[in-house]
Design the sequence.
């Protein structure tokens, strides 16, 4: 948490972002500790890698005139456990991923889902902080970044 004791001077939302991060530093440290524990647990289980998209949400799904669905925007493709994509489809209910399990016969690791969900949130925090510590103006993007930083840190708590 370097830099929290000094003023952030990137732009009009820098100081508020520093205050928000300072207020949530304990939950950030806790989340990083959980992340380390999940990495160790998932690594020990050695899940088989598969080709994953990275962001399989509705905004990356298109339908052709013939009704065929295609997943687009493959800039974050990677070899990883299947849960890298599946966590976005998991709403936390016991049967959320049941259709996937039924169709594939593959078991889902709750720890691996938790790892990728947490990694997404931590990456978001890092991106919002980088944006708000850098030179920026008071515009819709920087206001969104500050609000999203607050929301993401509340989820980590």
Sequence:
């Amino acid at each position: 948490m370097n830099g929290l004791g000094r003023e952030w001077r990137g732009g009009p939302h820098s100081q508020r972002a520093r205050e928000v991060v300072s207020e949530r530093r304990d939950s950030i440290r806790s989340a990083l500790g959980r992340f380390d524990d999940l990495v160790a647990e998932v690594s020990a289980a050695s899940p088989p890698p598969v080709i994953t998209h990275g962001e399989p949400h509705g905004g990356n799904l298109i339908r052709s005139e013939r009704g065929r669905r295609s997943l687009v925007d493959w800039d974050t493709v990677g070899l990883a456990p299947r849960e890298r994509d599946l966590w976005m489809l998991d709403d936390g209910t016991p049967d959320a991923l049941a259709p996937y399990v039924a169709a594939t016969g593959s078991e889902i690791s709750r720890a691996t889902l938790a790892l990728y969900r947490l990694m997404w949130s931590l990456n978001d925090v890092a991106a919002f902080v980088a944006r708000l510590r850098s030179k920026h103006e008071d515009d819709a993007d920087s206001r969104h970044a500050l609000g999203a930083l607050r929301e993401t840190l509340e989820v980590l708590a």
Remarks:
- The beta strands are 50-52, 61-63, 69-71, 78-80.
- The domain at 48-108 is CATH 1.10.510.10 (Transferase(Phosphotransferase); domain 1).
- The chain has two domains: 1-47+115-157, 48-108.
